[in-house]
Amino acid sequence: MRKNSIKNTRINSEVQRELSSIISREIKDPRIHPMTTVVSVEVTPDLKYCKAYISVLGSEEAGKDTIKGLRSAEGFVRRQLANRINLRNTPEITFVLDQSIEYGVHMTHLINEVTKDLDTENDTEQETEEQL
Fold first, then answer.
1. For 4, which DSSP code?
2. In sequence order, what DSSP letters do the residues of 20-57 get, joined into one string?
3. To 5 degrees, how large is the angle CA 91–CA 21–CA 92?
4. pLDDT: is 128 or 107 the higher one?
5. 0.85 cut: is pTM over it?
6. Coil, helix or strand for 97?
7. Higher pLDDT, 131 or 91
């Protein structure tokens, strides 16, 4: 099975949906932030390993605590996943903190500041031209 095959894509989306459900509804660890999202999942073609990219809406410390909580609940999550999805092998899950959403928001904020500065510069230039 190739990495980007249709079967692998379906397995990735199914594992992502089930992981999201398990994390939000069944894990009772207080370290896991309530605004935790499974951004994407990559299951290897041999179904042995899985990387789950997790995004946490909150502080950086909340993200680190959430990853620690998820790593401690890894066995429970894997067992629940095995019960819900019928696969030949249940993948070993590795949780990775994904900060791409926060990075995108930060970059958007920086771009907005630069364009705001450019707009004010253009307004002052137009005023000086009108005065001449």
1. T
2. HHHHHHT---TTS-SSEEEEEEEE-TTSSEEEEEEEES
3. 10
4. 107
5. no
6. strand
7. 91
* Mean predicted lDDT score pLDDT of the chain: 87
Residues 15, 43 contacting (CB under 8 angstroms): yes
If pLDDT is split at 50, 70 and 90, which confidence band does 50 have?
very high
- Average pLDDT of span 87-115: 87
Total count of residues recorded for the chain: 132
The closest of 29, 37, 40, 41 to 65, measured between CA atoms, is 29
Residue with tokens 């890894």: 74
Residue 91 Cα distances to 7, 23, 97, angstroms: 15, 16, 18
Q: What is the mean pLDDT of residues 46-61?
A: 91
What amino acid is encoded at 44 in this protein?
Answer: T
Residue 124 CA to residue 30 CA, distance in Å, equals 53
Query: What letter does residue 75 receive in the DSSP assignment?
Result: H
CB under 8 Å to 67, separation ≥6 — which residues?
A: 54, 95, 96, 97
